Prior knowledge:
Blueprint: E1 6-17, E2 20-32, E3 37-42, H1 48-55, E4 63-68, E5 71-72, H2 81-89, E6 90-94, H3 105-115, H4 120-133, H5 149-161, E7 167-171, H6 179-196, E8 199-203, H7 207-210, E9 215-220, E10 223-229, H8 234-246
Parallel strand pairs: 3-8, 3-9, 6-7, 7-8
Antiparallel strand pairs: 1-2, 1-4, 4-5, 9-10
Helix pairs in contact: 3-4, 3-5, 4-5, 5-6
The structure holds adenosine-5'-diphosphate and magnesium ion (MG).
Domain ABC transporter: 6-246
Keywords: ATP-binding, Nucleotide-binding, Transport
Organism: Exiguobacterium undae
Amino acid sequence: MTPSLLQIQHMTKTYQRGMETVHALDDVSFSMQEGEFIAIMGTSGSGKSTLLNILGALDQPTSGTLRLRDEAQREIFTEPAATLYRQQNIGFIFQSFHLLDDLTVSENVALPLMLAGTDAKTIRQRVEHLLEHVGLSRWAKHRPTELSGGQQQRVAIARALIAEPPIVLADEPTGNLDFRTSTEIMTLLKALNKEQQTSILLVTHDAQVASYADRVLYFHDGRIVADQPSTGELGPIMETFERYVRSV
Length: 248
Ligand code: ADP
Ligand code: MG
């Protein structure tokens, strides 16, 4: 059997807030296969962003292990290993795009490769290819602020993919977009997942968005309360959400 792409075991994260201990993650275990598209649903404060930040080595767990292709990643929660792990494995997409307004669209997309020291010709070719892929070639020399929300998120997607990471982590990527634009973004992500076998882990509180994934993990109070395959139908996702997340 091929090993999982990512395997999380007994992950916990606690925060101290005055006298109170907050269990942001409370013994979370799951595996993600190569090419899998997983959505994470849960109410606000259930630990979804905490999990994504840890998987992206932006934050350190309190305890637990992360294995990548069956190899324990003990070093990645401290620098310089964290940066290297992110450069080689992770593309991030955020709700508020996180683009740099002083740079052009092209420069924003190129940034991860520039930081990794890739040669200029390769960078130029990949940027052109990706901008075409996300339908933004004619905006290459513009600033992000001249673009609509949906276009800005497509720039962020191109940036997330430029280093060809095996894993894309998306934290509520459609949270600031209207329904139509959000559908466009999800169609793009789904195509990426299918065509390039990029594994996607996407946080959302929207069942419509979650329905694009192959599988949905439901979070409540830092725990996985349900883990189910998705057929793409909205009904079963909403039902599971109501049953396991709202009522516990
Ligand atoms: P979600 O993304 O599901 O809304 P988060 O992962 O952001 O939830 O947060 C999970 C819990 O951890 C919440 O109770 C939140 O208040 C708490 N939390 C997150 N970050 C911190 C922090 N830096 N300090 C203290 N508590 C935090
Ligand atoms: Mg969050």
